[in-house]
Design goal:
Number of domains: 2
Shape: globular
CATH superfamily of the largest domain: P-loop containing nucleotide triphosphate hydrolases
Oligomer: single chain
Number of helices: 10
CATH topology of the largest domain: Rossmann fold
Radius of gyration: 19 Å
Helix content: 25-40%
Number of strands: 10
Distance between the termini: 26 Å
CATH architecture of the largest domain: 3-Layer(aba) Sandwich
Low-confidence stretches: 1-14, 126-130
Strand content: 15-25%
Order of helices and strands: HEEEHEEHEHHHEHEHEEHH
Length: about 270
Amino acid sequence: MTEAAAAERPVATGTAPLLRAQNLHKSFGGVHAVFDISLDVPTGSIFAIIGPNGAGKSTLLNLISGIYQPDSGSVALDGQDLSSMRAHRRVRLGLARTFQKIRLFKQLSVLDNVIAGFHVHHKIPAWQYVIHGKDFARDRQHCREEAMRLLDFFGMSARLNVFAGELSYGEQRMLELARSLATKPRLLLVDEPAAGLNAAEVDVLLDRIRTLRGRGITVVIVEHNMDLVMNVADRIMVMDYGRHLFQGTPSEVQKNPAVIAAYLGGELS
């Protein structure tokens, strides 16, 4: 068997994948944004999706997270079919998402942005949102403590009371990640997290993603920063013009002629 053929085989994990997408198609006005894409993401892994601009990477994340519904094909999380499920219900099942264009509550504090992420798991009587009782106070305190832990993890403890709109771009990226973790995900989808970050911030991001994997969170990352991808991913899928081009380990991707050609003959490193 050739090296290229071996790279096309699914990763043997001994267990069913946490995320399985099969034969996904999505078109916009006759343009095939995603064409017959299938992927398996093993539990506890970091799976990267790369490709030139317009390859369909963000559209694929939108299909997995429920922002878009596929024209055909299916998505399953831990064996549960998500195909007809709305995005907010997928979040409750343990699927979280960040976006290429940061989506924060700019007029809320850093702390309140993260606290907002806990809303999907609130278990208090509805009337206590109107007349605040002991359950509401207890839940609020718990969320505050957990939010502070998450912000400390991303090095933002000193920024708790700053409005999100006043943060630097890199800080906003970290805040969005912290808020996504407040939903207690098993699977975290991150779209271009290194965009706009300086080298030091990218190093911090890489370390945090590795730490999340160590804590049992499976990560799917779309990213153009090849240094980050090659240093953090267990497996990489390459897309081009909405189609699957290649899949393999970082070293296999770096050597594949079709991948290099898709990047205009540039050498991946």
